[in-house]
Amino acid sequence: MDNKQQILRQLREADGYLSGQHLSGRLGISRTAVWKIIGRLKKEGYPIEAVTNKGYRLLSVEGRDLFNREEIENRLQTEWAGHPLVFLTETGSTNADIFRLSDEGYPSGTLAVAAQQTAGKGRRGRTWISPPDVNVYMSILLKPPISPENAPMLTLVMALAVYQACEALYSEENVQFGIKWPNDIVVSRAGGPCRKICGILTEMRLEEKEIRDIVIGIGLNVNQDEFPEEIRETAGSLKLALGRDVGRAELTAEIWRHFEKDYEAFTEVQSLAPLKEEYERGLVNRGRRVRVLSPVDPFEGTAIGITDTGELTVRPDDGSPDREVASGEVSVRGVMGYV
User: Fold this and answer.
1) Model pLDDT, residue 294
2) pTM of the model
3) What is the CATH number of domain 289-334?
4) N or C: which end of the chain has fewer CB within 10 A?
5) Residue ranges of the chain with pLDDT lower than 50?
């Protein structure tokens, strides 16, 4: 724990004011160093009151979106997911950051979190729009004991964890969350249209046909309230759905709490079978008509659910047998609208 974390913890646990002399003595640093750290905490949004001859006091932080390493680490309830945690105010791509950290020897579970990305990536080479200090961009390093052909299922495991976290934190606020197969997280308010709030990108590196490492990156629209015109009809955010600002540190910690549990269930059997029922509970495509955009054989039908390996089962309109659609081969769109 560094000096800033220690001072923040001291302020949280104090009943009243703490003098600069008290803090400098506890940490073994100068009062000037304490003053500088207090200044940094204030700049990050902590409401710290400073009174001459009394010292410093942390006021209530309820309702504030404080997003930094300390706030996330204080909330993490995981054994390995998110440990260690690297926090960046701005970066190019958290996926690229994690691959670099992996090359430096960081362990499985290492998490990179950023308040802004300048070179975020989406599926099929798309750009992920990344405004500053309103959303969550993060990537985790994994070195799973699985075969490479089973790695794509991890994207669905991650989608399930994000869905579960949103359900756990916000489902009482007249909003509905869902998973648009295979890995888009969507939200609707009071039965309105579904809007995408999260994208997930999984990248893998191999070494002699074995998995060297896997990175799963997440871009989550949290407190963003404006979108470019070209995506305005399909994109949304938690703030727009809930009508209030959302604490990003709490959401981040909740996602990894669910992911750790789901990941362990998946890797134990290298299958989505233990998670299938829960995933399908959130699957907004289920029971809806879809258009399968295959370059070879496009068709329309009704989505039934997923297989144990993550394919979408679709019942064609022409009465032919059910077909299993792989996410890497085709795109699925709703016949009426985004979902």
Assistant:
1) 83
2) 0.87
3) 2.30.30.100
4) N
5) none
Question: Could you give the residue range(s) of every CATH 1.10.10.10 domain in the chain?
Answer: 3-58
Provide CATH code, domain 69-282: 3.30.930.10
pLDDT value, residue 137: 96
pLDDT at 338: 67
| Secondary structure, 3-state, the chain | CCHHHHHHHHHHHCCCCECHHHHHHHHCCCHHHHHHHHHHHHHCCCCEEEECCCEEEECCCCCCCCCCHHHHHHHCCCCCCCCCEEEECCECCHHHHHHHHHHCCCCCCCEEEECCECCCECHHHCECCCCCCCCEEEEEEECCCCCHHHCCHHHHHHHHHHHHHHHHHHCCCCEEEEEECCCEEEEEECCCCCEEEEEEEEEEEEECCEEEEEEEEEEECCCCCCCCHHHCCCECCHHHHHCCCCCHHHHHHHHHHHHHHHHHHHHHHCCCHHHHHHHHHHECCCCCEEEEECCCCCEEEEEEEECCCCCEEEEECCCCCCEEECCCCCEEEECCCCC
Q: Provide the pLDDT for residue 229.
A: 86
Distance, CA of 122 to CA of 115 (rounded, Å): 17
Cis link prior to 84 (omega < 30° from 0)? yes
Q: Which CATH class is domain 3-58?
A: mainly alpha
